[in-house]
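Recap from last week: sequence in, structure out.
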Amino acid sequence: MKRKLVYTSEAEGHPFRQRLAPHVLAVPAEWRPKPLKWWQGEDAHLFVVSFGAFFTVFYTFIA
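Predicted structure tokens:
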């Protein structure tokens, strides 16, 4: 129990990440996240998943 449970700074990091080569963790300057598609928006995605779950459960009860 000599190990600290909480790091005091982000620079300390996880021991595995410290052993990795710097180029592995580097993010290219031109990298940008892909824009979300219309169905991946928070409201639309929640609706589609909820509708699909409801339809599956309802159809299972009928069958």
